[in-house]
Amino acid sequence: MKIAIVSDIHGNYWALSMVLKDIEKQKPDLIINLGDSLYGPLKPDDTFKLIQLYNIISISGNQDRVIIENLSNDSNNKTLQYVINDLDDNAINWLKTLPNAQLIEKIIYAFHGTPDSDTTYLLEDLHNGYRLVNDESKIEEYLKGIDTKIIVCGHSHTNRLIQTANRLIINPGSVGLQAYDDDLPIYHKIESYNNLAQYCLIDIVGIDINVKQISIEYDYKKAVNCAIENNRLDWAKWLKYGKV
């Protein structure tokens, strides 16, 4: 079985288009999307329509949840309001149906952050704004009660492959946003130092599991210009340089 994993698209239609064209060449059996699909000052509704075209199995992320929670509010967050205004009813209804986690083909357990939280990093420990990798005991604490050998997660926009005594844990990185900063749980930066769209490919042959972390060039300038038009100069910088 061959499975493509994407995550953290953030409405970046141009990045997702190129990633899906590359995925088509790989001819996977499944495409799994780990959430945070539509939020951002880019092309949320066009991104939704593209996801629908490819019959992608999708999980809810924290930003997907935020969209749904604020549908009836006049949000002070102009980017959130832009996203809500751009999405049609089909996109909104789709977001409402997304599961927080899903067991796929009895071999892969998929979620956005951790199984119980879409805002917690599974693999990253934050210390004074720097990213350290959680030790194995902490990771296994988050995964208590889950017995699959393959775990896929997103949220940190950081491509990682962690092998523990019990399992293989994969974060494919971000399709659509290569850097950001956040105040929670403490102030920290996520930076990839590039403007490439990222995804991964898992190839399972018998007991062998092969993983490819793939980075794809796309016309990031279109995304940068769209962010500028929507008054998000921070996003423009993140998209262009992969730095905060």
Structural topology:
Layout: E1 2-6, H1 13-26, E2 30-33, H2 44-53, E3 57-58, H3 62-69, H4 78-86, H5 89-97, E4 101-104, E5 108-111, E6 124-127, E7 130-133, H6 136-142, E8 150-152, E9 159-163, E10 168-172, E11 179-182, E12 188-191, E13 197-205, E14 208-216, H7 220-229, H8 233-241
Parallel strand pairs: 1-2, 2-3, 5-8, 8-10
Antiparallel strand pairs: 1-13, 4-5, 6-7, 9-10, 11-12, 13-14
Explain briefly what this protein structure is.
This protein has 244 residues and is of the alpha/beta class. Helices cover 31% and strands 27% of the residues.
Main beta sheet: 5 strands, mixed
Number of helices: 8
Order of strands in the sheet with the most strands?
Answer: 3-2-1-13-14
Rg measurement, Å: 17 Å
* Total strands: 14
Chain-averaged pLDDT: 96
Name of the CATH first level: Alpha Beta
Q: State the CATH architecture.
A: 4-Layer Sandwich
CATH topology title = Purple Acid Phosphatase, chain A, domain 2
Task: Give the terminus-to-terminus CA distance.
Answer: 38 Å
Helix content: 25-40%
Pick out the low-confidence regions. Answer: none
Shape: globular
Could you name the CATH homologous superfamily? Metallo-dependent phosphatases
Number of domains: 1
Helices and strands, in order, run as: EHEHEHHHEEEEHEEEEEEEHH
Q: Please indicate the percent range of residues in DSSP E strands (runs of 2 or more).
A: 25-35%
Provide the structure class.
alpha/beta
